[in-house]
Amino acid sequence: MRKYRWWLVAILIIILAAFGLHLATSSKVSQHTVTVGAIGPDVQVWQHIAKSKAAKKAGIKINVKSFTDPIGLNKATASGEIDVNAFQSWSYLETYNKQNKKAQLAALGTTYLEPMGIYSKRYKKVSDLPNGATIAIANNPANTARGLLLLQSAGLITLKKGFGVTSGTNEIASNPRHFKFEEIDDTTGPRVLNSVDAVLIGNTIALTGHLNVLTDSIYHEKIDQTTKNNINILATAKKNAHNQTYLKLVKLYHNQQIQEWIKKKYQGTKVEVNKPLSYLEK
């Protein structure tokens, strides 16, 4: 009987050991690897997320690849070379899809808004800007349009009906204070602050000039339907729009600990936007 019991114990130990090995192997198999392509500050954000406890808990291993060419990154995502990308706004995605019918992308979810701001060394609020003031505005179509929409939001100008994401100053319907617009390379915004009455600067460029859009601008974008096109998203190939692993990346981005790190790292200027995709599609 003793020998029989020992055999039972030995068999039980072997079964448990084998079961444990199976669990360990299954755990390794269940971990999903996702390649995320990013540009600029988003590279650092996703490198941080890749190392986070939240990513490990979600069973996702994230490989981050840095790009400098946005169109190249979108095409790499559409072809499957990159699983998910993090860099573009909703309007950028829509424009890309219109121009690339055979390499379509889809949004997975929203991430943040980096507000564009109106900055001035001479005036403390937009209502102080005098008649005939010179306002510097970006000379690339997307940021020109975005800047004009911001000026309209501030109550300084009105735009024609049908104003689009690449419209320019010729689409201004009313300029009652006769502002003059000086087109500049948008990377030079902080450097021209002393030579004009006001400058419109995107947040990424503002940060390079040690400007915080939330505290240093005299007016900036808010999160509402007028700025929905500027909200950043995570994107993937259209066929992967419902991939459950990729969708987990959206939840990871909005993890509380990760958001606290982003807020500290970028001084609160990457304003979290956790909205359903229907908010963008209205």
UniProtKB/TrEMBL annotation:
<dbReference type="GO" id="GO:0016020">
    <property type="term" value="C:membrane"/>
</dbReference>
<keyword id="KW-0564">Palmitate</keyword>
<keyword id="KW-0472">Membrane</keyword>
<dbReference type="Pfam" id="PF03180">
    <property type="entry name" value="Lipoprotein_9"/>
</dbReference>
<keyword id="KW-0732">Signal</keyword>
<protein>
    <recommendedName>
        <fullName>Lipoprotein</fullName>
    </recommendedName>
</protein>
<comment type="similarity">
    <text>Belongs to the nlpA lipoprotein family.</text>
</comment>
<keyword id="KW-0449">Lipoprotein</keyword>
<dbReference type="InterPro" id="IPR004872">
    <property type="entry name" value="Lipoprotein_NlpA"/>
</dbReference>
